[in-house]
Amino acid sequence: MSRDAPIRERAAFDFIRYGSVWEDGDVLCEALAPVARGGRLLSIASAGDNVLALLTLDPAEVIAVDLSEAQLACLDLRIAAFRVLGYAERLEFLGVRPSERRGEFYRRIRQPLGERGRRFWDARAELIAAGPVHVGKFERYLRAFRRWVLPLVHSADTMRTIVALDAPESQRRFYAERWDTWRWRLLFRVFFSRTMMGRLGRDPEFFAHVEGSVGDRILDRTRYALTEIPLRTNPWFQYIMTGNFPEGALPRYLRPEHEAAIRARLGRVRVVQGTVEEAEGRFDGFNLSDVFEYMSAVESERGYGALVQRAAPGARLVYWNMLAPRRRPEGLAGRVRELEALARDLHAKDRAWFYRWLRVDEVTA
Prior knowledge:
alpha/beta
């Protein structure tokens, strides 16, 4: 099949690719905060974490869109868990805390889960038992890295030390003196190569428009994260190293200070299966994840233009590029302004560090 065919025709979407969202909800919310209150937001659903995080901004509505019924079922599950379970129970059910009661919790949330969610999760009791935040293909990939690769690189003592660091100065010294070995660089490049990530972590078609060394680029971003971003409070670093989100490093949607706001606004989420271009209406803000990276340059320009047609004046588009550079088409320079300084500042503190670029664009006309 042609690499220019739509991604829905080239990649599989019938299983959970992401049990958790690997984009920083705090960065996303800071980018969209000026336009979100009382507005309509369009968001890629993925596992649902950042759809719920956007509710903390008090929008009138969040339209959650995804091609994958499996990913929408993950969002359905989270919404039902927020509706029915208390805070501590929800952390147990989702997998942040250990539990032998996830089957019991599921029976309690099954009715409000809805038909799509019941159809998907009734047949997957083993995934419920494992904790839904852990059951994506990408989480399994990272689990393999933690279990099989890291022990070949560093001792358990070295790994215990790095997860406790929380100041860039000490992290830079530790990285230079103990972490950045030839074995680390070699095995990291192999495990995070285009071949390994395509086979075990993402989908080969997600790299169809990527040029150059995947492993080198991700290693460069990882070096930055391990030396410049506090590690002890970084949810995604902690997950990779320990296999879970510690309660001192939770993603935005799971933090107790956002509990009341999210629960009160669950009715503002509407779910649509399809592409972002298929969501109806006008929007004040867009969380587009890294959707443009899966498209050819021509297809991404067309999709970007279609979204701008549905954007209210002053709307913001937020999206990431991991490996394939995608940005506002030059033909739309008269209608869309790239907020480059804001994007640079936010990207510098983005704790889900894999992405090479963060883009924040503003519709001016």
